[in-house]
TrEMBL record:
Source organism per UniProt: Roseibium aquae
Keywords recorded for this protein, A-Z: Cell membrane, Membrane, Transmembrane, Transmembrane helix
InterPro entries: ABC_transp_permease, LivM-like
Entries under CDD domains matching the protein: TM_PBP1_LivM_like
Protein name in the entry: Branched-chain amino acid ABC transporter permease
Cell location: Cell membrane
Taxonomic placement: Bacteria, Pseudomonadati, Pseudomonadota, Alphaproteobacteria, Hyphomicrobiales
Amino acid sequence: MNGIREIMRSRAVPVILFTVLALVPVYAAVFDDRFLMLFATRILILAIAALSLDFILGLGAMVSFGHAAFIGLGAYAVGILAYHDIWAAWISFPAAILVCALFAAITGAISLKTRGVYFIMITLAFGQMAYYTATSLSAYGGDDGLTMWGRSEFLGTGLFENDTAFYCLVLAILLAAYVFLKVLAASRFGRVLKGAKQSEARLQAIGIDPFGYRLAAYVIAGSIAGIAGALLANQAEFVSPAYMSWHRSGELIVMVVLGGLGYLHGAILGAIAYLVFEEVLSHYTQHWRLIFGPLLILVVLYARGGILGAIKGKSS
């Protein structure tokens, strides 16, 4: 009986979460709040990136400090194509995914030969390599970034130009990514990743080499983060090397931990909480991180499992 209740609770949280997110355009339309639409869209985009990181971090214990590189690469793929007057989303978005998948495959094949702090440092190094490469692209703005004079076109329509329609598109992509990763986590593929996290030696003893599974997971996560980057470029109509800095990677890790490590919808909750905290506290002081830091420490110490851990603790 307790097991059934636990399943119901675990399913109720994402259903409630996505229902609330789906009602945001209704609230914004009733109160004519354009800022809310723009802010909520940014939250969803970063939630997609945090979701992809949670997949490899929570499931496979791959602490990547270069995950933001995929956001930047996806954004630059769209921005550079737009610079050359290629606005079709059916070209730019697959290009963003392909670029990120290739970068993830090459860097992942090297990084996954290491473990622990060495994996953290090598992913950080690859992320910074991408960052400094972007700053050196003087033809595409260099350090100053690249301005996009519009958004991508979808089948010849201005779907991306309408804030409400764009929000709904981003929400649909977030939901699709969540369902896809949830199914993948529950499959044999996901069980191998979990097994490798617990004991790689046991898997190898029964004839399973987890390297290929980890690399595939890394490529999938990088590709999804690339989609987030492509969406971010369209939402801001601007591309910057700052998208792929190690600070952004650190923020994604904070989102995952804050929401609840290992729960995919926890990454979404963490993205919402982080960006709302940032928005509210930044109105009072530019040193808002000095306030947010101790709050995060309190969450880690007293709410094991982040926000989701706190919710489960109260419901039990």
